[in-house]
Design goal:
Layout: H1 3-23, E1 62-71, E2 74-86, E3 92-101, E4 105-118, E5 122-135, E6 140-156, E7 159-166, E8 173-174, E9 179-180, E10 185-195, E11 198-207, E12 212-222, E13 226-235, E14 238-249, E15 252-261, E16 265-275
Antiparallel strand pairs: 1-2, 1-16, 2-3, 3-4, 4-5, 5-6, 6-7, 7-10, 8-9, 10-11, 11-12, 12-13, 13-14, 14-15, 15-16
Length: 283
């Protein structure tokens, strides 16, 4: 490719990110959750970077993850992320970083989360993010500060309700050529433990300028070391089925999650996870 073609392609990726941020509720720089069908808002068994920050309050005492996600078999549409969480006597603290795109166009998102668990009955969390975008046609980075708020509430032993917001103050990114509208998303979900090994999760997301996204799925743990995930989500008339598998050995686990968009194709994500929680169930 010549320089002009590369510049046009980088602009295409910029607008691709903008269009599908609204359609998919969150920007592609936000890594997908390990929770089935992106039902992370009420998933009290795992903390997912840039999703519900309240879930950080449940980690004990160290939680580390690295992940690689590819969309539609295009290397330019890949997201790489890393997160680290640490429990302290007063609040739990986490840091996250995510990168989407390639050299001519890419997004980066850096976040700091703080959360506290109040006796296992509910947890509160706050997230502070800095978003940056680079387009080769401009030759410079532009950034914006974003925020997140999260709540997790255990109503009874088997039922958890979660609520979170992403960019609730509707901040946008002003660039030299245009203004990129960043999604502002409100999420509400439930997790119902049918059995200790079987959980049913639901979630509804609303981006203020887009349609609702409804998601549901089941996760089943076997032998304390294997977990199978199946579900799906719908936005408008498009239904996206999701499947996943996880395995744990000692304090280490690996997740493989896939979803198939009937229009755009396959998205796959692999996550390597370390949790210093001896004798804990698979998370």
């Amino acid at each position: 490719m010549n320089n002009r073609t590369l510049s046009y392609f980088s602009l295409f990726l910029f607008f691709f990110s903008f269009c599908f941020a609204a359609r998919g509720q969150v920007a592609h720089v936000v890594p997908s959750a390990r929770s089935v069908a992106q039902t992370a808002v009420a998933d009290d068994a795992s903390w997912n970077a840039f999703h519900n920050p309240a879930m950080l309050g449940y980690i004990r005492p160290v939680d580390l993850s690295v992940a690689y996600e590819n969309r539609y078999l295009l290397k330019e549409l890949s997201t790489k992320s890393i997160q680290a969480g640490f429990a302290t006597p007063y609040v739990n603290v986490g840091a996250s970083f995510s990168h989407f795109g390639y050299s001519l166009y890419h997004d980066m998102l850096m976040g700091i989360d703080v959360a506290r668990d109040f006796g296992g009955k509910f947890a509160l969390g706050l997230g502070f993010d800095y978003y940056m975008a680079y387009v080769a046609a401009t030759g410079r980075y532009q950034g914006a500060l974003l925020g997140r708020i999260g709540l997790s509430l255990r109503l009874v032993d088997r039922l958890v309700i979660g609520f979170s917001t992403f960019n609730p103050f509707q901040n946008n990114l002003r660039m030299e050529l245009t203004t990129k509208r960043l999604p502002s998303v409100y999420s509400l979900g439930t997790a119902f433990y049918i059995l200790p090994e079987l959980v049913w999760r639901t979630q509804a997301d609303k981006e203020i300028s887009s349609r609702y996204r409804f998601a549901t799925g089941l996760e089943y743990s076997m032998l304390g070391h294997i977990r199978v995930k199946a579900g799906g989500y719908a936005t408008g008339r498009i239904f996206v089925p999701c499947l996943g598998f996880a395995a744990r050995v000692s304090d280490y686990s690996a997740d493989l999650d896939c979803e198939l968009n009937p229009v755009l194709g396959l998205t796959a994500k692999i996550t390597l996870h370390y949790a210093l929680t001896p004798n804990a169930p698979l998370k």
